[in-house]
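User: Hi! Is it possible to get a structure for several chains at once, not just one? Here's what I have:
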Amino acid sequence: MSEPTLTTTGAELERTIESLLFLSSEPVSAEALADATGEELHAVVTAVERLREHYEFERRGLVLRELGGGYVLSSHPDSEPAARRLLARPRTPPLTPAQAETLAIIAYLQPVSRPEIARIRGVGAESAAATLLERGMIEESGRSQFGAVLYRTTELFLRLFGLSSLDELPDIKEFDPEPELEQELRERLLKAGEARAGS
Amino acid sequence: MSEPTLTTTGAELERTIESLLFLSSEPVSAEALADATGEELHAVVTAVERLREHYEFERRGLVLRELGGGYVLSSHPDSEPAARRLLARPRTPPLTPAQAETLAIIAYLQPVSRPEIARIRGVGAESAAATLLERGMIEESGRSQFGAVLYRTTELFLRLFGLSSLDELPDIKEFDPEPELEQELRERLLKAGEARAGS
Amino acid sequence: MRLVDLELDLDVFAGPFDLLLTLILREEIDLLEVDLAEVVVAYIDHLEQRGELDLEAATEFLVLIAALLELKSRLLLPGEEQEIIELDPGEAAEELLARLLDAHRYRAAANHLQARLAEQSGYRFRSAPLPPSLRRASLQDAAAVYSPGTLARAIGELLRVPEPVDVRHIGVPKVTVAERLAHLRKLLARGRFSFDEAVARADRVTVAVTLFALLELYKQGEATWIQGEPFGEITIEATPSARAARLSAAG
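Assistant: Yes, the chains can be modeled jointly so their relative placement is included. Here is the combined structure:
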């Protein structure tokens, strides 16, 4: 007799979680779902996984993903062309190179101040940082010991970039310049000049 | 041979419509769905009906309803107690400067349109307005003569700021750089915004 | 354009940018003596002249000049930081190299983020207010957590009309190399002249552009110059062949 009940409970829980994720505009953690439903964490995790599979295997128009520290529903990318026609709201506009560089520095070094960003880029980052703030991708995070505003990335940043946490960013080492390029830069800094100086 | 194709198309259309209704907070008409998907009206109506039945017969957490001449998704009423536990606490993280500015403009000038807010601030207010809407501190209040959405503050706004009515909004004299000016607040804000944008 | 091609003519140094860098790193030129603003002006002129912007080289230049500015400001700071600034040339070079590598790294990371954002943009999220029943519940639980003063203060800030920026003193120099070439050729036709005469009452950018024009004349074999001593007067005259050509054209 207990089996059907268990199955029902599983289905009920999946259903409730579907409702909750639909209503919530931000990612919801497994713990918060367990609190709201009064279920055990492991039951929640199982139900979430079933819901995710349902969307995937039944080719539904929704996708369940773990992003920005919780579960969140989104539309399926296959519907993007129709969504663009229906909604006046444009899809996430691309970043300019200056914005992308500023965001990359903040993402990897956070919390980081604007002078530090400028130091790495060689140029200021006022307008890029203002746009990133306005778009909700970064936020202020206190002040440095010298009084400069510090920035960090937001939960929305993770969500927009499809990351469940900052750990999912590739190691910065992966972006190391090729050894040949490093060698070339080194030579240009010293040897090329020395050759001229010696001549 | 044509049947499987038809079925596939039907399923694809149902899937796209599911995505579109998920993304829309307001009811969407069959005509708008037909435009967005590039399908015939009758095919859209059939797909919507299939989607409605899917939610009902599979006991999903979502409900498809016809409301005000369009279709809209909502969460299943059975989930309401859990939803209340998860969401019925107002979310009140500190306001970002952009949110505070946007909210202040709406509070003192309501009703006010988004383009006006952008003119006063000198930058767009999309992200800030969306957050304030989601948190229930502002709401839409019709459209301007030019068709732009107008915003006003909500009852929740008053509660969160400890005000019993809008008349209790503090006098801005204390913070006004030129309190002697007689001009209307809206005009002064727009003029200052334009001066900022031009500098 | 490559940075190697950037030729400078400063008070303390004339030659290519990378040589200047080397000499600074080997402490053969005192960074304190180098007017970095002039380097920037020369670079901008160079860009203008070429009419193209190579982002790679531009970034490299910006990173290097920013690093040099920082080194210089550290040198200018008196007292306590004395031991930090005892950079030996090798260390300074390593620091500059580290800066360049970092700039490359974050540019690559930026490309990665841009690609990632594009790839994710088809996943759209729902943004909608809570349904009325939940909103009502929310209202019951609402406590006064925000201060109304915040709003009045924000309005006060927004009412502030910025001081109009007086830009009259910033003349926008619109001098081109072609104009300065014509100017120099006219002076050449009259005989020899000094560089100071050629740039009398001119602003810095015009001086820089005139210098480029002069280098161009030299390259074309039209003019040559003599400078008796460092910082001395530069006397410019037409080359014998140019003079001969002009005479035969006139005759």
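The two ends of chain B are 67 Å apart (CA to CA). The CA atoms of residues 158 and 164 of chain B lie 6 Å apart.

User: Great, thank you!
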